[in-house]
Amino acid sequence: MESDLHPPNQARKDSTFIPTKWRMAAIVFTAVAVSVCGGCASGPHNADPFEKTNRLIYRFNDALDRVALKPMADVYVKVIPKPIRTGIGNGFDNLIYFNVVCNDFLQAKWGQGLGDFGRMAADSTIGIGGIFDVASHWGLPAHENDLGITLGKWGAGPGPYLVLPLLGPSTVRDAPGIAMKYAANPTTWLYLPIQISIPLYVVNIVDLRSRFDSVVRFRNAASIDPYLFTRNAYLQFREAQIHEGQSATGQSFYDEDSDASPAATRPASGHGE
Amino acid sequence: MEKSMHATAIKVVLAMLACTISGVSAVRAADQNDAPSPPTARQVMDQVTHDVLAILRDHNLSVDEKREKVKQIAYQNMNFDVMARLSLGRYWRGLTDAQRTQYQQEFKQLVTNTYGATTDSYTDEDVKVVGDRLEQDGDCTVLTRITGTKDDKPDQEVAKVDYRLRTQDKQWKVIDFTIDGVSLVANFRSQFQEVMANGGIDQLLKLLRDKNAAHEKNAANGK
Prior knowledge:
The structure holds 2 protein chains of 2 kinds. Chain A is mostly helical.
């Protein structure tokens, strides 16, 4: 079936090898599927038209978290010393950093883009694959950037809120960024056999979960409905990232007799007491 | 679990420290009675930050003692009534006096439990007041940065926390926290309003009561 493409990988043409075209197909499929299913149901004023389905997936993710991810993350934190965990986290962060660089440039942030490129280059080489984050010590701090932010800056609204299996909160605008992040990750194109790529993926997830733990605890303390808490926090946070720190709550939000909806409008009129 | 989410997620919790870090001593305000004018919102937050960090860094205090002391500062410097009311939005008007009182009590307890959950995770972060902004309605927003060791690098910005303060009897009190762009009051409002729309005030009060009761049960079990 595949007598083509990459001679160096011919040797690994067995069941553990996922061919290039599958990878491409997966990326394209994610991007298309997500934008199509979003486009067909953008109702006015409702940020969450798929709430029923979303809640179902949220419950699934949450259950998976309780039975698998959280226990694994706890063990991980207990067994692996902090410096090693830091190195592992740095390494994974570095792997997805090309995505940040690309989006800096898509947003015409040339200076930041060059800086981030330098950061990635320094960490990948001198920092030995990103394990040692030397760039931060040299005045090249990490930034957060992705396609959802780019699209938002270009004027796209978030579209319906989505909860994705395993991946968690997203929106129609943000979901294509997942495909891009995957495409911009060099390990996607390294053709690692699944005996390596799957454990790597699991460690990545467990590492993320361990760094996430305090937030989950905060959510559990502050929410009477964790689904709603997560949705609102996600939407507010993404708006703030796009508007670079400016809160989306308009003036009239703080008027004790008014009822502006948060993260939706920035009313010009607003005078409280 | 998105990368951007997780990074901020970490920040959010550390930032909730700032939530714990919300208060200023009324004692301090009293000390300044001879001063010509009451402290500005920014001075209030400078003081709160200073006092709370001192408590968190005091190695002679147990976790429970720290929590209690931080709570006292928070109670003196937060306006829970306004916060509760803003968190309910338009539904506030439809409540009876009894319902309002019950709701305010449960709300205060919920917020208190929330920062209790974060006091323990303090790992020597620093908080700097970096600016303030007068709002159109007379409120003042005080901008702070939490810095600390992140991934083994010192002096990294962990979170941006904005405090919105409103005057009451000439004293500035906190009415909202915005952590990396996420307003706590806006978040509460989105939760509460959906509950109100579906189950009314009885359902909301029930959920708040259940939540607070569960927290107490956990605390009693030493969790």
